[in-house]
Amino acid sequence: MFLHLVETKDIALKDVIAILDIDSFNNAECNIELLRHALINGRVEKLSDEESKSVIIANVDGKQVVYFSPFSSITLYKRAYIVDELNIL
Is 43 within the bounds of a domain? Predict the structure, then answer.
């Protein structure tokens, strides 16, 4: 099953490591180090020109990718939960 991030981007739900609120992400030093490493390696995607409200960390082809999303972390959690529930049916 896939998690819809924006019109042009879906990721496999099994690949999602974390969905974080942007403020929580920015306030943790370990996240800043993760972001720095991802930037150096070209593994950061800003999914919209809109203000980012959440950060999704995913394992894509064995590498951690950081996505900045205009949707709130709560909205994305709800989407993930609904997709997971549909998978059970």
Answer: yes
Q: Is 56 domain-assigned? A: yes
Residue 62 structural domain? 15-88
pTM to 2 decimal places:
0.86
Domain count, the chain: 1
Q: Mind listing the pLDDT tens digit of every residue in the chain (89 residues)?
A: 888 888 888 999 999 999 999 999 999 989 989 999 999 999 999 999 999 999 999 999 999 999 999 999 999 988 887 655 556 54
Residue 4 falls in which region: left (phi positive, over 0), alpha (psi -120 to 50) or beta: beta
User: Is 10 a domain residue?
Assistant: no
